[in-house]
Amino acid sequence: MIKVENMCKHYMTRQGHKNILQNISFTVKKGEKLGILGCNGAGKSTLIRIIGGIEQPSSGSVTRSMRVSWPLALEGAMVGGLSGMDNLRFVCRIYNVDFESSLGYVKKMSELGNYLYEPVKTYSSGMRARLAFAMSLVVDFDCYLIDEVSAVGDKRFNAKLKYELMDRTADRSVIMVSHFYGVIQEYCDRAAVLNSGELFSFQNIESAIAFYDKTLNQKTITF
């Protein structure tokens, strides 16, 4: 289970104190797939980084009793100066996963070909995303954190990813943030909306989308 309780996050900017997230609370149990919609700048990536432990909240708490992935589709998940192969080797060492048995899967899943031997900093954003997703799926995570799955940008790869996340690992949890509600409908079984630093939860995805559409006409950028 992942339990977020009264979590707040603020930064100091040149314009002064900036509240990004305010009193965020929600729970994700094993097997649940939560989608969080929000406009650009609503604080989605900040929220997903805090859940993943990359950043700490200013107040409140995040309790993790599941093995949580790094935030997928974020460039910070990999070392740019290392090749894709070396990044995979590093991840396997950190998570105690056999490198040789993982290599074939990552080659097939990422579809990077010889680019797997090139520095990640030379990759396009889509290539980096494909490598990050492929590497994450060789680790036995209980919950996958996904930041803008649409960043992958390849329809065929998205179909493969959906199979891996929704079918092969159907018992795993997903927390996905996006500003496209199409991917939330496709991957998630419930949804919430992040707007003006607050999280609004809904009983069904359709209600969340209707509320999100209203917020688009009065967009408030928090960071």
Describe the structure.
This protein is of the alpha/beta class and 223 residues long. The chain has a domain at 1-67 and 143-152 and 172-223: Rossmann fold, CATH 3.40.50.300. 34% of the residues lie in helices and 28% in strands. It contains seven helices and nine strands. It has helices spanning 44-51, 84-94, 99-110, 125-136, 155-168, 181-187, 205-216, and strands at residues 2-13, 16-28, 33-37, 59-64, 68-72, 143-147, 173-178, 190-195, 198-201. The strands form two sheets. Strands 5-6-7-3-8-9 form a six-stranded mixed beta sheet, sandwiched between helices. Strand 1 and strand 2 form a beta hairpin. Helix 2 crosses helix 3 (99-110) and helix 3 (99-110) crosses helix 4 (125-136). The longest helix is centred in the last third of the chain and has 14 residues, at 155-168. It is globular and about 45 Å long. The two termini are 28 Å apart.
List the helices and strands and how they pair.
Elements: E1 2-13, E2 16-28, E3 33-37, H1 44-51, E4 59-64, E5 68-72, H2 84-94, H3 99-110, H4 125-136, E6 143-147, H5 155-168, E7 173-178, H6 181-187, E8 190-195, E9 198-201, H7 205-216
Parallel strand pairs: 3-7, 3-8, 5-6, 6-7
Antiparallel strand pairs: 1-2, 1-4, 8-9
Helix pairs in contact: 2-3, 3-4
Can you identify the CATH superfamily of the domain at 1-67 and 143-152 and 172-223? P-loop containing nucleotide triphosphate hydrolases
CATH architecture of the domain at 1-67 and 143-152 and 172-223: 3-Layer(aba) Sandwich
- Overall radius of gyration: 17 Å
Helix content: 25-40%
Biggest pleated-sheet summary: 6 strands, mixed
- Spell the H/E element sequence: EEEHEEHHHEHEHEEH
Shape: globular
- Protein structure class: alpha/beta
Could you say what the CATH topology of the domain at 1-67 and 143-152 and 172-223 is called?
Rossmann fold
The number of strands is 9
Strand content: 25-35%
Question: Count of helical segments?
Answer: 7
Strand order of the largest sheet: 5-6-7-3-8-9
Q: CATH top level of the domain at 1-67 and 143-152 and 172-223?
A: Alpha Beta
Unreliable spans = none
Mean pLDDT rating: 88
| Terminus-to-terminus distance | 28 Å
